[in-house]
Amino acid sequence: MAGCGGGDGASNEAAKAIYQFGQADFKDITPNRGVAPSNNTLSGAASVATDGVKFYIADTNNNRVLGFNSIPTSLSATADFVIGQPNGNFAKNDPCIAIAASDCPISTTLSSLNQPSKVSIDAGRLLVVDSGNDRVLVWNTLPATNAAPSFTIGNGAGKPAAADTLFGPLGATFAGTKLVVADTGNNRVLIYNTISALASANVVLGQRNFTTGQLTPNCPKDTVAIPDCTLDFAITADSISGPSDVWSNGSKLVVSDQANNRVLYFTQVPAANQTAAARVIGQSNMKNQGGFGSGPSALKQPRGVWLDKNTSYIYVADAGNNRVLAFNTPTADGSSAIAVYGQGDYNHVTANDDDQNNSPDLLNNGNGKQEASERTLSNPLGMATFATAGSNRIYIVDSNNARLMVYDTN
Question: Where are the NHL repeats (predicted)?
Answer without folding.
Answer: 286-330
